Structures are given as structure tokens and as C-alpha cells.
Amino acid sequence: MADALLLTEDEAAARLQICGRTLRRERQAGNVRYILIGRCVRYHPDDLDQLIEVKRTADRPKPTKRTGKGGRKIAANHGGGVIVPFSERQRSRR
Question: H helices of 1-94, where?
């Protein structure tokens, strides 16, 4: 560990070639380990390598189809394809 230097947030983001805001979101989501010294956030290079391994997509299973309440499939437009004006919807409820 003595040989490895800790990286600042900007240095770590540059090493990963991502925006600093993206790295901060990953940290806040608990996806990357970090070191907090006072109010300074630092990253160990090994932890960045681990983040890269976790984010690799080749080993991930394919996402399942989206389903709604009760296991029903959700349509892409979520509305059934019929547009009804608001005033007509209110009249049909009465």
C-alpha cells in the first residue's frame, strides 16, 4: 500500500475517463470504495479497478422484460394507444 498513491476525486474520474459527477454518484450509491480523510475523499487505485470489474457488462445476465402490477406486461407507450382529452375523461367519471 505504501507504493500506491491515493487519488483525488478528479484524478480518479480522469483515470476512469468519466465525469466527476458520475464518480460521485457511484460512490454515493455504494458501488465504489473510498477513503474519507476529514472532508477529503480519496480513492485507492485497486478500488477503481474493482469498480471496473463490477461494471463489466459481458458477464451480466440479460435484463428481464418489464412487468407491471400483477405480472402484466407494460406497453411502451403506457397508455394503450388512445388519447382522450381531459375534459372527456372527467365527464365519463360522473
Answer: 9-16, 20-28, 45-55, 86-93
**φ and ψ at 67, to 5 degrees?**
-130, 155
DSSP code of 36? E
34 close to 42: Cβ distance less than 8 angstroms: yes
Q: What is the DSSP letter of 76?
A: S
Per-residue pLDDT tens over the stretch 50-94: 999 988 876 656 666 666 666 666 555 555 567 777 777 766 665
The burial class, CB within 10 Å (0-12 / 13-18 / 19+), for 86 is: exposed
pLDDT, tens digit (0-9, with 9 covering 90-100), for 13-47: 999 999 999 999 999 999 999 999 999 999 999 99
Burial of 15 (0-12, 13-18, 19+ CB in 10 A): middle
